[in-house]
């Protein structure tokens, strides 16, 4: 109660009306004091208040409307009422301020930080090699699965190389099969025939030339000499006369056919013959003209005689035949016999190799060539396969940077940017979301991997989401001289679909609990030069300042680590003088 018990003793000397007023004021004041203490200490009966709706404050005091007027009149008006009220209060009485007992309890402690919702994974999809987009299979907002084809690059150049490498592989395989199968009997027989021919040639060289060969060479030389003499002597008069007679003959024929042509033209004009007959006569005339030209050329050649180059050619032929006859008469030279022997040895080795079959080294070499061809083919096949751009994880197409026909090149970028439009096809983000927060150096030591986190989003007031600490950055970062460590929190899949990337959230990390800790209301804590403290209610309702060491703040209460025992009553508001030992009392009005 705000009013001291001495008020009751004074009531015995009052009139009945004064006594009723005093009782009413004391009761009302006591009720208000009790209600104020309950509001500050949090000891209100919530069940009762929740069951009945709150009434307006003026309704609680409506009975005063009926009793105050007669009381005021009986006491001599408002001035008399004020005097009586002041007389009822004892002189120098101390009034207790609002207080609350220090509380000991065990509470869960947490770290609260603001964060942002981000996609768990985000990547700009690019082809492995630069090229032109041939097909684009998705659009913005589409959901894709891991390894799903989202785009195909142009592969026309690679297709041509694929055919080339396929042909090389077939060729190497055929060569290997041939070596593994060995030589055919036909190949061996051919090599043996070539050996027999080489041996016969060697024997002929070693035996020398036969008389028939010498006689044949002499006849060829005589023929060449006779031809040379004929050319050097020129054409005979009989040949010229014969050529002249031939020319005259064809000229007469031409004259006759020319006349026929003229006459048949007249007949055609008169309609006596057809055009076909006329054309035949013209063809006959043209043949006679060609024969005259040919006879003139022959006669000119006969009169001009043999050309110098023909004579030179005939002389060379005579010299060649003479040398051949000389060689035949001289017999085979030693170097020719040696060359023939080498040829025989070469053919012998060839036959032996064919009969022995393929060597192991040749087969191994052929196998290596097949493997090399297979590798080249596999490489080009992989390059063709890599023209398909695949989704690396389940996600959503957040943004599209290029269209069909655009040229793009590989990129390592992890997000959108100015270069994304020329180096990437689209941005893909994972369906799975996470919260990214930055904690201070003092806070990060209390956070562990796998720790539970409560999440609140501004977009969903009153709704709570849950998650776990998934990653703690191995290195701190400094921003504007403030050191912080990035923490990533995975959101439980059951509720993650509501939160979109970019939303602001509040993350509450449960870091432990305080056992049997002392707590005081936040309103009781006073900041002074010597530090934080509280005013406690001492003997005689005197306020005493106690310096304290504060800890964590939980809701409307602050932990006290030292300075209190746990059985004190603290003032919810400091005294007006802000000094220890001060009391609070109402002054008595002067008589």
Q: How far apart lie the N and C ends?
A: 27 Å
Tell me the Rg in angstroms: 63 Å
Mean pLDDT: 79
Secondary structure category: alpha+beta
**Total number of helical segments?**
17
Shape field: elongated
Give a short overview.
The protein is α+β, with helices and mostly antiparallel strands. 48% of the residues lie in helices and 23% in strands. Among the domains are: 6-90, no CATH class; 125-153 and 387-425, OB fold (Dihydrolipoamide Acetyltransferase, E2P) (Beta Barrel), CATH 2.40.50; 157-182 and 358-385; 187-208 and 336-356.
Overview of this protein structure:
Among the domains are: 6-90, no CATH class; 125-153 and 387-425, OB fold (Dihydrolipoamide Acetyltransferase, E2P) (Beta Barrel), CATH 2.40.50; 157-182 and 358-385; 187-208 and 336-356. The protein contains 17 helices and 22 strands. The protein has helices at residues 6-10, 16-41, 46-51, 57-60, 64-74, 77-88, 156-181, 185-207, 211-233, 237-270, 275-304, 308-330, 334-356, 360-385, 420-423, 441-444, 493-496, and strands at 99-101, 103-119, 122-125, 131-136, 143-144, 149-153, 388-390, 395-400, 407-408, 426-430, 433-440, 452-457, 464-472, 477-479, 482-491, 504-521, 526-528, 531-537, 543-547, 549-554, 557-562, 569-571. The longest helix has 34 residues, at 237-270. It is α+β, with helices and mostly antiparallel strands and 591 residues long. It is elongated. A hairpin with a 5-residue loop joins β18 (531-537) and β19 (543-547). The protein has a six-stranded antiparallel beta barrel with strand order 2-11-15-13-12-16. α5 packs across α6 (77-88) and α8 packs antiparallel against α13. Helix content is 48%, strand content 23%. Residues 153-209, 215-328 form the YbhG-like alpha-helical hairpin domain. InterPro entries: Beta-barrel_RND_2, HH_YbhG-like, MdtA-like_C, RND_pump_MFP, UPF0194_transport. Residues 1-54, 565-591 are annotated as: Disordered. Belongs to the membrane fusion protein (MFP) (TC 8.A.1) family. Residues 435-510 form the CusB-like beta-barrel domain.
């Amino acid at each position: 109660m705000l009013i001291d018990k001495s008020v009751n003793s004074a009531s015995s000397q009052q009139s009945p009306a004064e006594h009723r007023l005093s009782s009413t004021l004391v009761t009302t004041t006591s009720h208000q004091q009790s209600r104020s203490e309950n509001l500050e200490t949090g000891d209100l009966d919530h069940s009762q208040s929740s069951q009945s709706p709150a009434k307006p404050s003026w309704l609680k005091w409506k009975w005063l409307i009926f009793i105050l007027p007669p009381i005021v009149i009986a006491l001599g008006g408002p001035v008399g009422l004020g005097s009586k009220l002041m007389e009822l209060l004892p002189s120098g009485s101390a009034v207790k301020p609002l207080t609350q007992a220090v509380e000991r309890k065990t509470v869960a402690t947490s770290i609260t930080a603001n964060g942002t919702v981000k996609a768990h994974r985000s990547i700009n999809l690019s082809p492995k090699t630069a090229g032109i987009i041939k097909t684009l299979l998705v659009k913005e907002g589409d959901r894709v699965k891991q390894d799903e084809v989202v785009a195909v690059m142009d592969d026309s150049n690679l297709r041509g190389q694929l055919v080339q490498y396929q042909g090389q592989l077939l060729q190497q395989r055929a060569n290997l099969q041939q070596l593994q199968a060995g030589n055919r009997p036909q190949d061996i027989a051919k090599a043996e025939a070539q050996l027999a021919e080489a041996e016969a040639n060697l024997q002929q060289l070693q035996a020398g030339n036969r008389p028939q060969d010498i006689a044949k060479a002499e006849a060829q030389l005589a023929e060449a000499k006779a031809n040379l003499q004929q050319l050097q002597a020129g054409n005979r008069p009989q040949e010229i006369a014969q050529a002249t007679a031939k020319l005259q003959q064809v000229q007469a024929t031409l004259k006759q056919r020319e006349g026929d042509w003229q006459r048949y033209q007249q007949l055609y004009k008169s309609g006596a013959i057809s055009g076909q007959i006329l054309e035949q006569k013209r063809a006959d005339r043209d043949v006679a003209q060609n024969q005259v030209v040919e006879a003139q050329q022959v006669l000119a050649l006969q009169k001009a005689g043999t050309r110098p180059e023909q004579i030179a050619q005939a002389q060379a032929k005579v010299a060649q035949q003479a040398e051949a006859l000389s060689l035949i008469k001289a017999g085979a030279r030693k170097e020719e016999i040696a060359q023939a022997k080498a040829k025989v040895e070469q053919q012998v080795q060839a036959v032996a190799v064919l009969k022995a079959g393929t060597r192991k080294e040749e087969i191994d070499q052929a196998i290596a060539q097949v493997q090399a061809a297979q590798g080249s083919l596999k490489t080009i096949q992989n390059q063709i396969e890599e023209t398909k751009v695949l989704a690396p994880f389940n996600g959503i197409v957040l943004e599209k940077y290029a269209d069909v026909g655009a040229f793009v090149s590989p990129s390592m970028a992890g997000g959108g940017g100015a270069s994304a439009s020329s180096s990437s096809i689209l941005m893909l983000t994972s369906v799975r979301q996470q919260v990214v927060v930055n904690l201070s150096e003092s806070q990060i030591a209390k956070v562990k991997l796998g720790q539970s986190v409560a999440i609140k989003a501004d977009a969903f007031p009153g709704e709570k989401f849950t998650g776990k600490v998934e990653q703690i950055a191995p290195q701190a970062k400094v921003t504007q001289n403030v050191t912080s460590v990035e923490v990533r929190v995975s959101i439980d899949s059951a509720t993650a679909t509501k939160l979109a990337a970019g939303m602001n959230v509040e993350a509450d990390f449960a870091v432990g609990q305080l056992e049997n800790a002392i707590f005081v209301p936040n309103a009781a804590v006073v900041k002074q030069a010597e530090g934080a403290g509280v005013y406690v209610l001492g003997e005689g309702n005197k306020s005493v300042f106690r310096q304290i060491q504060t800890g964590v703040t939980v809701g409307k209460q602050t932990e006290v680590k030292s300075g209190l025992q746990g059985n004190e009553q603290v003032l919810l508001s400091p005294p007006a003088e802000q000094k220890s030992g001060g009391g609070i009392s109402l002054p008595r009005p002067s008589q």
